[in-house]
Amino acid sequence: MKSGFVTLAGKPNVGKSTLINALFGRKVVIVSDKPQTTRNRIRCILTGKDFQIVFVDTPGIHKPLHKLGEYMVKIAVKALEGVDLILVVLDAVRGVGKPEEYVAAFVNKAQTPVMVAINKIDVSDACAIEMLKKKASELFTNIVEIVPVSALIGENLDVLLEKIVENLEEGPQYYPEDMVLDRPLEFMISELIREKIFLLTHQEVPHSSGVVIEQMEERDNGVLFISATIYVERDSQKAILIGKKGSMIKEIGTLARKDIEYLVGNRVFLELRVKTNPKWRNKDGMILSTLGFKHDLK
Ligand SMILES: Nc1nc2c(ncn2[C@@H]2O[C@H](COP(=O)(O)OP(=O)(O)O)[C@@H](O)[C@H]2O)c(=O)[nH]1
Ligand SMILES: [Mg+2]
């Protein structure tokens, strides 16, 4: 069996999480059209007949503006250490600029083989892709392969997967074959709620929102009861999340509940509450709680 850890690296919004979902053929991590959707390191385990790839999804590497941002970047940079391969994702439309140089500095320091996926080729052209290939090979040392793909329409993903496996060595099966994520169910549930906030709200609201699962239990009638709190930093953001006569929170709840029901294969009752906690993104305890480490604190 070939196996190994593959960390995805890139700036926010290039399609790292979309690429993971596409390789798995279903949603394992959340995605949005806004940068900095992913806040944590998430291991996603893809087991095939003769391989096991542990993909490490990470927040994008960027210049942080608050403690949560610092934490996110620290996690993304740390996830580059001690892995077998770094999969750098570039955006074919945006090309490379200062943010990519910033990413490259961290990636090159890791001294690990690098594969580059040039993503979003569905909205780019052959000439731009060729240029980006050239630029990427100048920017990153240790490149073993550059593969143009589209995570969105599934183009060339079989080639990418083949190349990744080719570049891994013989190794143990690290996780049971039916395990997909290294995070508890509660984490995935809070992520799905956060995804809907990213989908339905704008500007600072999604970035200022953090979700904490307060309670989760199966009731006698077989329904999974989940109660969650969404934290925001200002009362104005709370008003937006609740919406006119509660319309926004209701929509977030309905969409999240459907995804959670699909995930757990059970009927779900989802209770959402919104609370203001000024500047929570600068408070360590709150950062850990909203990242799903609440139980680790006890
Ligand atoms: N056109 C196009 N859009 C994509 C592709 N892959 C991802 N996206 C979009 O890019 C945005 C950011 O994706 P996401 O996976 O959250 O990026 P991440 O921050 O790098 O994890 C979303 O709106 C995706 O739908 C692709 O191959 N083609
Ligand atoms: Mg992401």
SS elements, strand count:
10
Structural class: alpha/beta
What name does the CATH topology of the largest domain carry? Answer: Rossmann fold
What proportion of the residues is helical, as a percent range?
25-40%
Mean pLDDT: 95
Mind telling me the CATH class of the largest domain?
Answer: Alpha Beta
Question: What general outline do the C-alpha atoms trace?
Answer: globular
Write the layout of secondary structure elements.
Layout: E1 2-9, H1 16-24, E2 42-47, E3 51-57, H2 67-78, E4 85-91, H3 98-109, E5 114-119, H4 126-139, E6 143-148, H5 157-166, E7 169-170, H6 185-200, H7 204-207, E8 210-218, E9 224-232, H8 235-242, H9 247-264, E10 268-276, H10 284-290, H11 294-297
Parallel strand pairs: 1-3, 1-4, 4-5, 5-6, 9-10
Antiparallel strand pairs: 1-7, 2-3, 8-9
Helix pairs in contact: 6-9
Overview of the molecule:
This protein has 298 residues and is α/β, with parallel strands linked by helices. The chain has 2 domains: 2-170, P-loop containing nucleotide triphosphate hydrolases (Rossmann fold, 3-Layer(aba) Sandwich), CATH 3.40.50.300; 185-297, K homology (KH) domain (GMP Synthetase, Chain A, domain 3), CATH 3.30.300.20. Helix content is 38%, strand content 23%. It has helices spanning 16-24, 67-78, 98-109, 126-139, 157-166, 185-200, 204-207, 235-242, 247-264, 284-290, 294-297, and strands at residues 2-9, 42-47, 51-57, 85-91, 114-119, 143-148, 169-170, 210-218, 224-232, 268-276. The strands form 2 sheets. Strands 1, 2, 3, 4, 5, 6 and 7 form a 7-stranded mixed sheet that branches. Helix 3 links the parallel strand 4 (85-91) and strand 5 (114-119). It starts with a strand and ends with a helix. The relative contact order is 0.14. The site of guanosine-5'-diphosphate has 21 residues, from helix 1.
